[in-house]
Structure formats: structure tokens, C-alpha cells
Amino acid sequence: MTGLAMFARFFNVVSTRGLVGFIGLLLLFGAGPHSVCSAAQTDASSTTTDVGVGSQYDDTHVYVSHGDLTQFVESFVSTFGGRATKQLVLTITPTPSSTLWQGASSPEGSISGFDFQTQLPYGFGYERTGYLVTNMDTAVRAAVTDGADIIVAPFADAIGRDAIIEWPGGVMMQLYWHTIAAHDPPFTTVPENRVYLSPVKADEFVRDFIKFSHGHIVSDVKDAPGIEIGLPSTTYRRIRISSIFGKVVVLVTDGHLPYPYGIENTGYQVANLQETLGKAEASGATVLVAPFTSGGRESSIVQFPGGYIAEIHSDL
Fold first, then answer.
1. Is pLDDT larger for residue 13 or for residue 117?
2. What is the largest CA-CA distance in the chain?
3. Mean per-residue pLDDT over the chain, rounded
């Protein structure tokens, strides 16, 4: 089950019986007894340690409208395939709080869904993704060295540690580490982390994130078709990045975007867009942007129950 690492880090149990049951679930889904080991690989773009593990351990964080978690997860799985975990009531913050949580994983990506039962504590709700790292202290030091800020300092859960960091331009993400390693197969297609930035911060973000992720620029198109951001009569700058953490696409705009562009933070690549959209609508999702063709792909934007908005595309 992709996302076991995510599942593990959020299960903030307090009873031995609960922890034993949780480890049983990990074993059921294929997690092994080995801990993730620290890596020491570096590249020419950074002097910091490479702390990534693999894109199959990265997930999108989805904070749904209260009461909609079940319908959202069912719709996500019906649309992309895969399977979901059981729902759990957890504390995922360093301060007292409670959320109903459920994870889901598909061949095209994984999510962590949250329906908070209490008020949402500071620092949470804006992080777009969770990235598994080999060592939390090393990862945080590397992030800071490479230009990130620490929004929520590392804190312990029952089986690992978590932190929230912020990159130039306000791009927030979670880093997590856990003591029981998952051994998950790679995604069939790696999802895109879709980052909308201004021209003021775009190059700074790209420079710093590439240093941290030990990634590289796949393409930097200065005049990408504006239809991709809902503005067909214009052009914009699109930067694609690839690293061990997966794909990032940076969309550089002035922020004058029609709804729902700029709200979606993940793009999913599927084999057949029309077929996938049919599954999405049948499971309660709404197509917000009808399919269009640009840049060698057919794309659409969908809203799932609970408010989650995502881009979905297939290559032509």
C-alpha cells in the first residue's frame, strides 16, 4: 500500500494495544521491520545531504469539509483505483487537537485526508505534501541551509517525527520520518506538485528546492500556452522539475487567474482522461474545467466531494 509511511507517521497512539494493532496493519500492507537508513549522496548543485526516499512515499494533504471525509476518499479511490486505510481519530499536531484521518493510495498518487474535529492549530492546513526523509534532523538542517524556513519544528509522534517547512514564495510542505519502513512499489505515473508563484519568487524557489531535493530542471518554457491556466489569449512561464521526491511544476503568473486555477496543488497523470473523468463524475466529483489540449497532453480540473480540487491529465 503506497502511503504506509504517511499512515505510520500520523498514528499518534497512546496505548500499547493500539500501537500493536497499528503495526499489524503495517505488516498487512507490506511494511518491513527495517528502519530507513540515512543517505550521504550529494550532487554538484548542493552541499547538503540527499535526504529523499522516493516519490511513492509522498502524499498530498487534503483538509476536507467537516463530515465529507468518507465520501471524498471513496470518490478518490473510485476515480484512480487503489485502496484506502481505515479511518482513525488521531492527534497529528504537537499541541492538543483531534482529527478524523484516512489515507488512500492509487497507482497515480496518494493522499492523506483530514476532517478536523477540533480547531486547526497554527502551522497546519497549508502544507501541500508530506515528504518522507531518511533522517529528520539532517533533512531540516539541509532545508534551512538551502533556503527554507521552519514553520513547525520537529516533533515526535508514536512511530516517528514530523516538521513543516516553507520555501520562498510561501510553498509549505511537511517532512516526516518513521521508525518502521514501508517498502512500496513506485507509482505507475508520478503526480505533479503544482506550485503557483510570482515572477518575484519563482527563480528563488526553483534554485533552493533543487538544492534541497538534488533535482534538476526538466524544462523551462517562457511562453507556455495560457490556456493551461485558464487564459487562452496569453502566455506564461512554466518550469518542470524532477527529483527523488517526484515532479514539481512551477507556474509563474501575476495571480490574475480565473477559478479554479491556482487552487489545485496536485496533477495526476492517467492513461485515459475521458474514462477517468467518467469515473470521477460517477463517484460524486464535478468537472470544473472541461478537457482541453496543450503541451502534448489533454487536461481537466476536477473537484472531489469535500472540496478537494485536482488537475488530471493524460499524454497524447
1. 117
2. 60
3. 88
Cα 301 to Cα 316: distance, rounded to the nearest angstrom: 17
Q: Do the Cβ atoms of 164 and 86 come closer than 8 Å?
A: no
Task: Kindly state the cell numbers that stand for 43.
Answer: 550532487
Percent of the chain with pLDDT over 70: 85
Distance CA 119, CA 63 (A): 12
CA atoms within 13 A on the CB side of 93: 19
DSSP at 56 = G
Q: What is the mean pLDDT of residues 162-175?
A: 98
Determine the angle formed by the axes of helices 273-282 and 69-80, rounding to 10 degrees. Answer: 150
Residue-by-residue DSSP string for 40-90: ---BTTBSS---B--GGG-EEEEEPPTT-HHHHHHHHHHHH--EE---EEE
Q: Which CATH number fits domain 192-315: 2.30.38.10, 3.90.550.10, 3.30.565.10, 3.10.180.10?
A: 3.10.180.10
Q: Check whether 5 has a pLDDT greater than 90.
A: no
- The answer to whether 32 and 181 are in contact (CB under 8 A) is yes
Residues of the chain with CATH 3.10.180.10: 4-178, 192-315
Q: CA 255 from chain center: how many Å? A: 22
- What is the CB neighbour count within 10 angstroms for residue 148? 23
Query: Residue 112 corresponds to which amino acid?
Result: S
| Residue whose cell numbers read 487503489 | 82
3-state secondary structure of 212: helix
pLDDT value of position 306: 97
pLDDT band at 26 (very low <50, low <70, confident <90, very high): very low
E-assigned strand segments in 158-252: 160-167, 171-178, 192-197, 216-225, 235-243, 246-252
4-178, what's its fold?
2,3-Dihydroxybiphenyl 1,2-Dioxygenase; domain 1 (3.10.180)
Alpha helices in 48-135 (DSSP H): 69-80
